[in-house]
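Most newcomers find our protein records easier to grasp once they have seen one. Read left to right, the backbone structure tokens trace the chain's path through space. Once this layout is familiar, the rest of the handout is easier to follow. The record below serves as our worked example for the rest of this section:


***
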Amino acid sequence: MNDLLFAREFAKELEAESSATIKCLERIPPELFAWKPHEKSMELGYLALLVAEIPLWITHIIRHSEIDFATFEHFKPQTTQELVDHLKKNITEAKETLLNISDGELAETFYLKANGQVLFSSSKKENVESTINHLVHHRGQLTVYMRLNDIAVPSIYGPSADDKSFTTG
């Protein structure tokens, strides 16, 4: 599949995942941002931010060819709305970036770094391709955190136990 077709299809897939992701983030209250289920687990607020920032990775992968853990600046939301708005902005920018690539651009190398040291490198296409899986994985993790805090889990690919818009026979 050529870069332009891949990018267009990937932008559609990102859009398809955005609605459920927004519904999850809309339910995360700031007073629980510091909560975590285990001492080795990440905080709920950081996990929600990670879900909101994964689409931003697509923009960085394509436009900057690298992400360095030491210099990547994380947004610091204070409210649920700021978190949701951050996700929406990142999805919009990622789709715009995908829909404006040039053919051959995704064959270029992407570098994941820590303090300038290369941890991993591969084609931009391979890295963009894995971001949806990464998003879905962490969104699933987020729904577990939600359940543990009695936050209603929205329908994602089908009914959830909390979604009243679905009825059972």
About this structure: DSSP finds four helices and three strands in the chain. The chain has one domain: 3-148.
